[in-house]
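Q: Fold this one first, please.
A: Sequence and structure below.
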Amino acid sequence: MRRAERLLQLLQILRRHRRPVTGDAIAQELEVSLRTVYRDIASLIADRVPIRGEAGVGYVLGEGFDLPPLMFTPDELEAVMLGLRWVARRGDGQLSRAAQDTVSKIGAVLPERLRPFLFDAGLLVPPGDRVIRDSVDVAQLRNAIREGRKAELLYKAEDGKQTQRVIWPLAVAYYDAQRLIVAWCELRQAFRSFRTDRMVSMAVLEQKYPGRRKALLKQMHEELERTHGVRDMDVFS
C-alpha cells in the first residue's frame, strides 16, 4: 500500500469510530508496525488534521474534518454496488428507485478509472421468486419512523383474525421475501413486528410517540437478549 493510500485509510479508520482507537488496532488493520502508525499520525497532525489523543490511550478525529466523499477503494465501490443492487431488487418501490438514482449520481462524479468498479461490479443479486408484495405504502411508514409518529393499522394475523393496532414504528426489517415493521404495540404493551403484506389498512397519525427511537430500540434489544439470549428480530414475527 502506498503511503498516500495508507494515510487515507488511517483517516477512514478514525472516522469509522466515535471512541478513541488505539495505535495497536490501527496497525493491525493497516498491517504495518506501530512505529509506522505513530509516524503517520504525527505527519497528519503536522498537516493540520485535527487528530486528538496520545500513544497508549488512542486517537480520535476531531470535528470539522472530513474526507473527500468519493475517495472509494475498489472493494468499497463493489460493496456499495452490491448493497444498492439488493435494495433495487428487495426494497419498496420508492426505495428501489432511490437506489437506482444513487448509482447514477455516484457514477456521474466518479473518476473515470473507478467507474468500472461500480458499473461493472461482478457481484449480482438474483431476482427473488418468493418476494411478497406489500399491501400498504412502506414509504409512509419509513417517513413515520423518521418523524417519530404513531401509525394505526388494521392487521390480519396468520389465522385470518383482524385487530386494530396503534403502533410506534421503530425500524423496517428487510428480508428476502418480505418486510417487517418493528414497533411498540399499544394493544399488546410490548415490542412486536408486523408483516407489511398482512396490513389490511394503515394510516400515519399526527401524534408523536413518547421517547427517543434509539432509546426504544436499545430497550428492545436488551429485552430480546435477556429473554431469548439472541439479538434476532425473528422472534417478534
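Q: Good. Now the second chain.
A: Here it is, same layout.
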Amino acid sequence: MPPDYVGKVVIDNLPLLLEGFWITIWLSILSSLISLVLGTVIGVARIVPFRPLRSFGTVYVEFFRNTPLLIQLFFFYHGLPRAGITFSAFESALWSLAIYHAAYVAEAVRAGIQSIHRGQMEAARSLGFSYLATMRYIILPQAFAIVIPPLGNLFIALLKNTSLASTIAVAELLYQGEVLDSRTFRTFEIFTAVGILYLCLTLPLGGFVNLVERRLARAGRGA
C-alpha cells in the first residue's frame, strides 16, 4: 500500500467528513440557544417565591441531570412515535440535547442569581419594580456576567455530546466517520481525522471561554 494512502483516504473522503462537521456545528448552535433560553427560565423558576414553580424547576433539574442523555435520545426518536409524536432524527437530537443541557444551565443560572446580594432585589422592589422587571433588568445581567465561564464549559460539553446523535442516525461528524470506516476499513486514519475536526471546534471555543474568564477576573479586581 503506498505511503501516501494514509493521507489520501482522508482527503478523498473529506467532503463527507465536512458535511458531518457542519451538521455538528448547526446541531450544537441550535441546541445551545434553546438550552440557554429554557435553562434560564428553569433557573429563575427554581428561586421564585411561588412554590409550585420552584417544585417544577427542582423536579426538572433532578430528572434530567440524573438520567442518561442516550436514554433521552432514544425516548424522543423511538419512544414518542409510539404515542403518535414523531420527530426526525435531527429534531430528536436537537430537543434531547437542549432539554438535557438546560438542566445544567438552570443550575448555573440559579447559582449566579443567588450570588447577587439580596439587597439589590429589595432595593429594586422598593423603587416600584415588579419581580420580573427586577430579574430582567437588574439581577439576570449581573448573574450572566458571573456564569459566562461555566456556561462556556457547558456548551463545550454539549458540542462533544452531539456525537451521541450518531446512535439515531443523525449524519453528524461521528456518524460520517463510522460510515467511512465501514467503507474503507481505515479506522485509525478516519477517526484520527474525526478527532482533529472535533478539536477544531472545541479548542477555539475553550480558548474564547478562558479569554472571557480572564477579562472578567481583571474587571472584578479593577472594581
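Q: Anything worth noting on the second one?
A: Residues 5-222 form a domain with the MetI-like fold fold (CATH 1.10.3720.10).
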